[in-house]
Design brief:
With 308 residues, the chain is of the alpha/beta class. The chain has helices spanning 28-41, 57-61, 73-80, 95-98, 102-111, 135-145, 164-172, 176-183, 199-202, 287-306; strands at 2-4, 16-20, 47-54, 87-92, 116-121, 148-151, 156-157, 160-161, 188-194, 208-212, 222-230, 233-242, 253-258, 269-279.
Amino acid sequence: MDVIPHIQTIPENQRTILTLGMFDGVHKGHQKIIRYLNEITKDTNAKSCLLTFWPHPRLVLHQDYDLKLLTLHEEKIRLLEKFDLDLLYVQPFDHDFSRMSSIEFVRDFLVGQLNVHTLIIGYDHRFGRNREGSFELLEELSELYQFNVVQLEAIIEGDRPISSTKIRNALLEGNLNYANEALGYQYSITGKVIRGDGIGKTLGFPTINLEVDKLKLLPKDGVYGVQLEIENKNYFGLMNIGFRPTIDNVQHRVEVFILDFEGDLYEEEIRVELITRIRDERKFESKDHLVAQIQKDEAEFRGFIKSL
């Protein structure tokens, strides 16, 4: 997959089968679109192409809205690489680009530069200035500019269509099971290991402290069972997200106690996959009560691991 940092004109004799959008999370709905795109590309000489944007439009147009993302730019590229696309265009999104009308976008970019043969979109896709562009408009433009347009139906998880917004809300509510099912993989958090205060070690549970990008969505505070890879070896662990109310209740932290591991990971970048939510974070009467609960959490999670 060639990653191209902005929309570029392709040769006149080359066509693209294209989808576009933010693809935040690259969830099951997104995956359905990409697989369909790849399937119909097989029988053509066209290039399979995905056009996405960075930063997220809401981060540019609604800076007062505290948007957190399921996938940061690098995470999204890592997930998309698994689908064997030919081309990934990452178009910078700014105020000038946002002012482009939906008709201009189709005429100048999709047709004029990307030479689109077939455009595939999801059930709720909108585009152009103020999200004015609709599937009905695309049907009109496809006749005018001689390309095909396909709108795929939503994938339902539970009783609701899957969307990035619903997955974000599920994580913020602590519903990790729904989020992982809708994503089609385990939600992950990547961060650099930074120095902590060593309190976990004094309690018998040494932890690594992760510094996480401020744009990354952290799920609801609490204790999670996780897995991670260190030097090509798989480990499990307990991750606490929150303020440690029994200890100090001052700074929001992401800490991981790695089971059956000894070593120094300082300044390493670690990706942690969230398997299960164990409990809410809460304040205990004493550190001894906290230790007893962590021991219960560990025993519960080790039992969970055996059932995998």
